[in-house]
Amino acid sequence: MKRIASYHVHTTWCDGHDSPEAMVRAAIEQNMTDIGFSAHAMWPFASEWHLSPASYGDYAAEIRSLKEKYGAEIRISRGFEADYLEGASAPDRATYSPFSPDYLIGSVHYVPAPAVFGKKSKKVEPWCVDAPAAEVARGLERAFGGDAKKAVSAYWGRVREMIEGADFDIIGHIDIPRKRNGELRFFSETESWYRREIKNTVKAAAHSGKIMEINTGAIARGIRDMIYPSLEFLNLAFEAGVPITINSDSHATDSLLCAYDQARLLAFNAGYRSASFLDDCGWTSAPLDSALAD
Ligand SMILES: [Zn+2]
Ligand SMILES: [Zn+2]
């Protein structure tokens, strides 16, 4: 059976525009076989775009009721996109188990400033890598004195820490610093230090057995051709045997399958012929859309 899924979907429970039910209906209309909800979560903290700790139970209950209502038409699963913030919050199954998630996506959105960066006594806010370009640039200056190599290397270090230390399923938008690099040009992906970082991270991912997502979310938000990860990253991941899933990181009904053809083609070009899907017994592998294999 052909499987069309997205396990990375946001709704009005966090920073999405549509309700979970509207997203389920749209997914059925678009012939999707699977939809997984992944509200932004940073237990036990919150922000304007994260679930508030008081809402976790209600969020979980709403997705459960949708499973009952639409279960015959589409496979619905319940997850969280859980933040990794060193020493404060981690995408750990044990932490989220009271809300019985089917899976967890682990994402790094914030990179803490190095403690020694000249302002030891002053609290410096972490660098938010997933923000509008001006904010990314401001944060880079504030937290890392504008040293992009240091900042981006620190990002990769946190990603590896998360992969190696936390218990979760899917690694979210793994090379997200590229998102604003088109506008800001703050680092070069061809420099040896950057290539070393991605090689080391692929190694960590392969060793962990975790699934890496191909994420098309930036395209729906107007950043042309930006799929995470890069083809270079994906080539290394394929060689190392890292399993993949294709996700839209959708925040609205009209972007549930945004740029999926492009994502499948990218996966195919890197050598992948199958992707991971969630079944009752856990993650299994099924062919990528065969239409692109010709
Ligand atoms: Zn994210
Ligand atoms: Zn997301």
TrEMBL record:
| InterPro entries assigned to the protein according to its UniProt record, in alphabetical order | Histidinol_P_phosphatase_HisJ (IPR010140), PHP_dom (IPR004013), Pol/histidinol_Pase-like (IPR016195)
GO cellular component, alphabetical, reads: cytoplasm
Q: What is the designated name of this protein?
A: Histidinol-phosphatase
Q: Give the keywords, sorted.
A: Amino-acid biosynthesis, Histidine biosynthesis, Hydrolase
PHP domain: from which residue to which, for each copy? 7-216
- Taxonomically, what lineage is the organism? Bacteria, Pseudomonadati, Spirochaetota, Spirochaetia, Spirochaetales
Question: Which EC numbers does the record give?
Answer: 3.1.3.15
- What's an example Gene Ontology biological process for this entry? L-histidine biosynthetic process
- Does this UniProt record's set of keywords contain Magnesium? no
- Give yes or no: UniProt keyword Amino-acid biosynthesis: yes
